[in-house]
Design a protein that fits this description.
2 domains; 5 helices; 3 strands; elongated
Length: about 140
């Protein structure tokens, strides 16, 4: 069975070794230890898959707790239907949250557009006022 070092996984998934250690601290992955004093982390194909699923969950915007719950659920082949229902609930909640965020962003963008237009009009008014009140240039005389 293939094994991987932390450096190999970091390179493969384009993340830092520190990020991998963080996921280990969070209980998402648990490599075995080898070498003197167990200093070297060794990742199995199972741990590589868990890391891959973790990163996929992060891309979807799931929390680490949600990711851990889902990844742990797939470790156990007990009840696939219950697992799928649970995953579906997480996805539905996450989609609803993102749709609310999208609506909030759209509202904020409309407000920004209104303020931008007000600023442009005020700025245009300032420029016109300055042009109207600027003293006439005196003709220069040359000797």
């Amino acid at each position: 069975m293939p094994t991987y070092t932390i450096s190999e996984l970091a390179r493969e998934f384009d993340i830092t070794a520190r990020a991998i250690r963080f996921y280990e601290d969070q209980g998402l992955i648990s490599p075995s230890r080898e070498g003197s004093g167990g200093r070297n982390r060794v990742y199995s194909a199972r741990e590589r898959t868990r890391l891959k699923l973790t990163l996929r969950g992060k891309r979807l915007g799931l929390t680490l707790a949600e990711i851990k719950s889902l990844v742990d659920m797939y470790e156990s082949p007990k009840d696939t239907e219950a697992q799928m229902r649970s995953f579906l609930e997480v996805l539905v909640r996450h989609r609803e949250k993102m749709m609310q965020q999208q609506a909030d962003i759209e509202t904020a963008l409309r407000e920004i557009a209104v303020h931008e237009e007000k600023c442009r009009r005020m700025l245009a008014g300032c420029i016109e006022t300055e042009a109207e009140t600027a003293p006439l240039a005196k003709p220069t005389t040359t000797k």
